[in-house]
Structure formats: C-alpha cells, structure tokens
Amino acid sequence: MRSIEGIERDISLILNMFPESGRLVYFIVPSILGAIFLFVSIWIFGFRRSEPAGRAFSLFTSSLAIITGAYFNLITTHEFTVMWTFACGLAGGALINLAFVFPVEPRIIIARPYLRWTGVAIGLLLAGYATTTLFNFERPTVYIERWQVMYGFIALGIIFYMLSNVYHALYAQSPVVKTQVRTILIGTLLAFIPVGSWLGIIFLRPINFSPYLFLPLVLFPLSIGYTILRFRFLRTDDLVKRGATYLLLTALVMLGYAVIAAAVGLLFNAALPANNPYLVGGAIFLIAVLLEPLRTRLQATVDSVFFRGSRIFEEQLESFSHKLTTALDLNTMGIIMRDQIASTLTPSRIHIYTYDSLNDLFSALPGDDARPTSDIRFSATSPLARYFEAERLPLYLDNPASLPDALQTEQSRLALLGSRLFIALPGKERPNGWLALGPRLTGQAYAPRDLRFLENICDQASVAIDRVQTVANLERRIQEMNALTRVSQGVNVTPDFDDILELIFAQTALIIPTSHFHITLYREESDYYYYGFCLENNDRLSERENLPFSAGTGLAPEVIRKGRPIMTQDYVRECQTRGVVPAFENVFAWMGVPLNAGAVSIGTLSVGSRDGSTVYTNGQLNLLQAIADQTAGAIVKSRLLKESQQRTHQLSSLNEITRQLTSTLELNPLLQNILENAVGILNCEAGSLFLLDEQTDELVFKVTVGPVATNLVGQRLPSNTGIIGRAIQSHGPVIENEDQASTKRFKGVDQQTGFVSRSLMAVPLQVKDRVIGVIEVINRRDGLPFVQDDQTLLTAFAGQAAVAIENARLYTLTDQELAVRVEELSVMQRIDRELNASLEMDRAMRITLDWALRQSSADAGLIGMLEEDKLRVMSQQGFDEKMEKLQDDLLPIELKAMAEVVETGLPRQASVDGSDKKLLSVSHTQMIIPIRRETTVIGLLYLESLNDS
After folding, report:
1. pTM flag (> 0.90)
2. In sequence order, which residues have a C-beta less than 8 Å from that of residue 276 and are 6 or more positions away?
3. pLDDT tens digits, residue range 866-878?
4. What is the structure's pLDDT at 13?
5. What is the Cα–Cα distance from 67 to 70, expressed in whole angstroms?
6. Hey, is 355 helix, strand or coil?
7. What per-residue confidence (pLDDT) applies to 312?
8. Residue 347 near residue 355 (C-beta atoms within 8 A)
9. H or E element that contains 685
10. Quick one: which of 422, 43, 403 has its CA closest to 230?
11. Nearest to 733 by CA among 649, 797, 668
C-alpha cells in the first residue's frame, strides 16, 4: 500500500463474506434502479426519438442507468470506471440539454439548434479530463479532485434545470407548459434534493456516498417521461381540497379522543388505558360516526372558502351537461358549447371543428350568423388531425416557431385560423374534432384550471357528438340503402331507358353532392365514346348526348380503358397530369367508376362538383360503384331489348322490302323504293343511289333522299370519288365516321348542297363480280356513328336491291331488244318485197342503208359492191363531198380497216378519233360490216359516227 507521501508498506487483510445487507445496498438496489432507468430511456426513445426532448431525456436516463448499474463495479473491480466517468459527464450535460428543449424551446435555441449540445460538450470535456487521472498510480488521489469538479457540474445542471422550470412556471404563456412544469418541479425537487445536497457538499469536502441516495432519482425520469410521453392533467385541486378536509378531520379526531379520555378519567377517576386496542378502536369509531355529518359540512366550507372558482366551474359543467341532453344535432350542440365557453373564458374567437364522415374532413360548426366560423377545412389525414390522433396534449401556439415538427406544414393555415389554444374532442377510432380558441379578450393567459374546465367541456361534448353522429350516420346509411333499393326497383320495373337514367341520377344526387352527372358509354365494335346521359350545372344537356367524342377528352375514357375508378379533388389538374383535355371547366371534386358488364367495361358513371368545399371520399366511391353496377345491368338489358326490337323491325322491313322489290320491274320507281327503304331501315337523315355508266365509267345520281336532294339527280361523278369510289374499288362496304377535317372525305356535294355529313356508309350494288352501282346513307338520326351491324344490314339489303335492279334492267333490255328485232324483221320484209317486186338493186340498197343508219345512230354511211380492188358505191348518205370526187362511183379501198374486213370477212368497230383512217375528218367511231355470199365477201356496209357511242 502506498501513502499520499509515497511511502509503501505491507498490510495483511482478512477477507470475510460480503454481508447480506451490503449486497442489498451496494449491488441489488443500484442494479434494479439501473434497469428501471434503462427501461424508461428505451421506452421514451421509442415514442419520442424524433423530438429533441425525447432524445435529451433518453440520453440523461441512459447515463443514470450506467451510473447506478455500474456503481458496484466502481467500488470493487473497476472495469467500468471509465464508462462510469463519461456517464457522469453526460448526465450533467444531458440535463442542461433537457432544460433547453423541454417543456418549451427558447427562440435562441430554435434559431441555433447546435446550442442544445453545449452542456453535453462540456460534460464530455470534463469526463475526458477526469479519465486521464483515473489510473495514475504516481498521483493516486488526483482523480478525486477531477470527479469533484464533475460532481459540481452535475449539481449546476440540476440547479439550471430547476431554475428554467421555475421561469417557465412564472412567465410561460401556455397553460399547457405551466401544468407540465408543475408536475416536473414536484418530481425534480423530490428526486434531486437528496443527491443534489450530497453533490454540493462533496464539491466542498469529501463525504461518503450512500446508494440509498439513488432511490429518489426514480421520481425524476418517471415524472419527465410521463409529461413527455402522454399529458394528463393532475387533479391537484382535488388532492388539495381533500387533504385540507382530512387534515381538519384528523385534528378534530385527536381533539375528540382527548376530550373522551379526559371525560372518562374524570368520571371513573382512572385514565383510559392506551394499550387496549378495543377501547381505542371503539373510541375512534364513535368519534368518526359523530363527525360524519360534520365532514360534509366541512368539505363544503373548504370548497367555498378556498376553491370558490373551482366550485363555479363545476356548477357550469353541470349546467352544460344538462343542456347537452337536449341537443339533437351538431349545430345546436355547437351553440351550447360556444355560449358556455364564451361566458366563462371570453376568448376572442371560438372554432369548434367536428368530423364529417361523408366528406372525410374536419370542418368548423356554424357561428351566431349560421355560417361556418372558418372556411379552412382539414382532411382526416392532415397533420393536425394526425396530431390529435396520437396526442391528448392540448396545443398552445405562443409563436409560430413553437409548432411541433409534425405541424410545420400547417403553419400558414393555423395562422389564418387565428387560434391560440387547441383542445381535442376525443373519440374512439379518431378524434371527433377539436376546440380552437383565440386569446382571451381580458388579455389574461389561460390558467391550468381553465384547461381543466375546457377538457371537461370537450369530454362531455365528445360523448354527445358521438351520439349525434351515430344517429346521423345511421340515417344516412338508411337513405343510401333506400336509394339503392329504388334504383334496383326502377331498373327492374321501368321499361323506358331514358326514364331509368333519370331515376339513377335523381337517387345518386340524394346521397352524393353533384352538379355534373354523366353516363359515358363505349361502342367497342366502332371504338368511340358518347354520353348516354349528360347533366352539367344541374341542367340536362340532351343535345350533347349520343354524339361521339375523342378518347382523349376527359377522364371517363381512362376509367373505361383501365376498368378502375378514378377519384380526384382537382379535376382539371388530374386531366393535365394524365395528358387529356378536360371535358368541362370549373369542376373541382370528381370521381368516376366503371360500368362493368361481366369482365368488360361498357362505360363510366361519373359525378363532379363545382363547389370547392366538396371532397369525395372512399365511402362515396364505393356507393357510386354499387349504383354503377345496377346501372350497367340496366344498360345491358335495355340494349338487348332495344337491339332485339330493332332487329325484328329491320328483318320485317327487309322482308317487306324484298317483296316490294320483286313486285315491280319499272326501274325508276324501283330505285326510289330501294333508297327510301334503305334510309328508313337505318334511321338516317339522307341517302343517295348511284348507278355506274359502264361506257363512261362514271357514277350517276339516279335517286336521292334528303332535305336538299332534288338538285343532285342526273349529276355525274368520277367512279373513284370519295367513299363511293372506295366501295366500288374494294367491292365491299365502307364506313367513314370521321370528322369534317378528314382528308379522305369528298366535300363537293356538301359544299354544293349545304348539307353537313357527319358519318357516311356506302355499300356497292353487286351482281356476281360486277358492280352496277352504290347505295350511300348519311348521318344516323340518333347522332351515333355507323357500326358493324348497320353495315351487315345494309349489305344484305343491297344484295337484294342489286338483284332487283338487274332484273329490271334485263326486263327493260329484253323489251327493247324485242322491239328492235321486230323492227329488223319488218325492214327485212320490206327489202325482200322490194327485191321481189321490182328487182331494183338501188332501191333495195337505199332501204338497207336507211335502216342501218337509224339502228346504229350513225351520221354517215354507204353500201358498195366489190369490183376487183375497188368498191362500187350503190348507196350513200353523208359522204357527198367524198363521192363527188369519185369516177364511176368507184371508191378505192385505201382504208386499212376496209381491207381487213374484206380479207377476214368479219365485222369491225373501232374508234378513229384523231386518226386519218376515215372518210369524214370529224368522225369519232367507225363500223364496217361485210356483205357475204356464202363465204365470199362481195360488198361492204360502212358507217361513221360523230360521237363516242
């Protein structure tokens, strides 16, 4: 052993068993306390690690856990001495850090958050300074001085913390802070006075430490942790009232016992035995029974003398509770609550926010003017609503910088609200709302008893709000079920499709706020969208229904394509985000759900609102989907019924038309009948029937139907014009549902007639592989585009019509050919008679030439007989100038065509337009017929025409 003077000597020690009391004092108690501190530290850190107060408190309690838990090792084997030293330094620094951040941060700390760690930095420096001397065997006692400095730092931290809380208790504006400070001061005083006294003494002179000094320290982390984790008002007034009452009763009991004992002594000349429990108990019982009436009077006296304000609050709460029982709705309840608070605390403004389950937001109840006291609303997921879900702690806004971190995003909205104090209206699943009060008109701060009064008001009001909202929700659910029931009944009973849609809108508007209601339908076979029902600004817009619109218009096509609902609180912005053009302006909240028919979406049911305060919820979305499912079934059934009726009518009309077509062979009435029935069977506005002129390859307007049809009959168009040209070229039907800007559309007819064609369908009239004409129909009267079913129907009709037209043509052609044949026979008989009667060759030749010119519509002709290599002209017409130059009527066979006919003996027809191989310079066509005797050509019949026919 080495002394302070450096003298070494040997000492013999006898080791004894560590006493049981020593193990309890030095090991078990500190270890249990260390475990408690560590548990509290982890517990608070788990809930409040994101807050500076939670981190500072956890650092302090962790340091205390090391100090107490490692105490036994410190006085025995010293393995944890260094860690224990740093824990002491951190404990003092963490206490200063805690004073800076809890219960409220000074503005200088908020502006310069690094100042929070000033105490921790000093503590670490002192601990490091002490650590360098812990195992200095040259100077073995120097570490004591360093520890004394560190102990003094801890004592200074305790004093600093207590003084900061005293300051907050005296000058803090927030009643919440004042109430917290009271709890903290009580815990701090009880916890730190013993150990603080020891630290102060040891700073001056060494003194032995008792581990029992650790025991009061438990009160400090428990009180601080309690106020950090969850705020509850301590009923200190109740404790004081009852304490004062029972203190007076105790004095009276003692006085009564003394009187009884003295009386017994005087009566029996003997003292009352004090060691007889039966006598003592009986005397006390007798005194308690006699003092029971006095206790009630005494309690009332204490309340009236010392707690007159609290008694007034209790009376007001009783009156408020009685009034609440008469309130049947939230507005009445808000008026009662507002009057009670205004008459008691006189705040400058009162906002009572309650939860609206329909819109899933918190809104202010109406004030005295029957209008909401604030237009500011908070959604159920807003930071303020989340705050009151997690905290029962009232929120007092002394300045914007004092806002919790979670509420920083709400700073501007809370500033506009103008409230200083917020108190929650507690609920089961979520807060029922909150009370927001402005500063008091008297200029006084809210006191803790004011907070307790407001808390009681809010607790009672919250129970009443639960009751009223439960009844209101039940009524709303009944209304929703009734609406769904009426929709279901209407779908099954109402036969008219438009009436069904009107019913669906009326029932939807009863349970979902809406100013825009649309049923958008989709035709998959033609890939277009249209409104089956359109209501905007609460007005039905029938003129916009059944008109196709682009797939990039509005959100309804997006719902149909993806088969999933869309809900937004800003319709225009949602359209911009998805890259589509808004279908309407000034709509805020909007939601649309698919109309599902099995696995296919046939349309969208959508609602929108121009009221910026309307917010649609998931519950309303589900309700709208239930209505949409009913609507989809109604639409499918109505479509099937309408299509079956329409198909029956069309087939009946087709059969009747077929019968009519086969009953007439007159071409013009037949064509008119065909077109009128085609336009009627497809319910179109106009139509045209074209026949193809095979000689000129032109399309001729034969028949037209429509408002401007008469001026088109007889006009011709090239066979490759527009949609009818494509029908001829493809030998198949063509549908064009494009707009007027289409480059494929022929606009000449529209420009000529002034008629606007929105949609067109052309079907060729085809006989075998030959197209004889085209039927074109224009604009369905219902405004919808042409679809595949229309094409199929008109194609079947066109097939019947083509056969009828061809039959009429054949009949007309046969009748004409018969007349020509009769005329031919008549002419042949005349020729035969002339030859047999007069034997005049010239006369017979003239008759034959006249007949040939008339039948062929030729302009000039001649008949000649072959003489060697020339042609003797027997009769001619139209070649007078040519014949004058001939000698003996002999025409040299100079034309190559004549020579080919003489050589081959076959007739020939050719176009000689622009050719010099003709007799007349202005001729266009040429025909040469051989005159044969058996197989020998003996003459020629030569004809020329000035036109192309």
Report:
1. no
2. none
3. 887 888 888 888 8
4. 72
5. 6
6. strand
7. 58
8. no
9. strand 684-693
10. 43
11. 797
For 214, phi then psi, to 5°, come to -70, -25
User: What pLDDT digit, counting tens, does each position of 464-495 carry?
Assistant: 888 887 777 777 777 767 777 777 766 666 66
Q: Is 777 helix (H, G, I), strand (E, B) or coil?
A: strand
565: number of Cβ within 10 Å:
19
Q: Is the pLDDT of residue 351 over 90?
A: yes
b/e string for 212-249 if b means 16 or more Cβ within 10 A? eebbbbbbbbebbbbbbbebebeeebeeebeebbeebb
Give the HSE-up count for residue 610: Cα atoms under 13 Å, Cβ half-sphere: 10
Token representation of residue 162: 């207590």
Q: Which residue has the higher pLDDT, 820 or 806?
A: 806
Res 592: pLDDT: 93
d(CA 862, CA 874): 8
Under 8 Å between Cβ of 912 and 925: yes
Identify the pLDDT of residue 710.
60
Helix H, strand E, coil C: the string for 493-536 is HCCCHHHHHHHHHHHHHHHCCCCEEEEEEEECCCCEEEEEEEEE
Whole-angstrom CA distances from 322 to 239, 427, 462, 464 are: 27, 21, 14, 11
Residues 85, 144: Cα–Cα separation, whole Å: 11
Q: b/e map of 425-452 (b: 16 or more CB within 10 Å)? A: bbbeeebbbbbbbebbeeeebbebbbbb
Q: Give me the torsion for CA of 904, 906, 912, 918, rounded to 10°.
A: 70
Angle at 523 between CA 518 and CA 526, to 5 degrees: 140
Q: List pLDDT tens digits, range 378-408.
A: 888 888 888 888 777 788 876 655 677 778 7
Tokens of 528: 């277009």
Q: How far apart are CA 761 and CA 335, in angstroms?
A: 69
Separation in Å, CA 758 to CA 124, 200, 541, 583, 763? 86, 99, 20, 21, 17
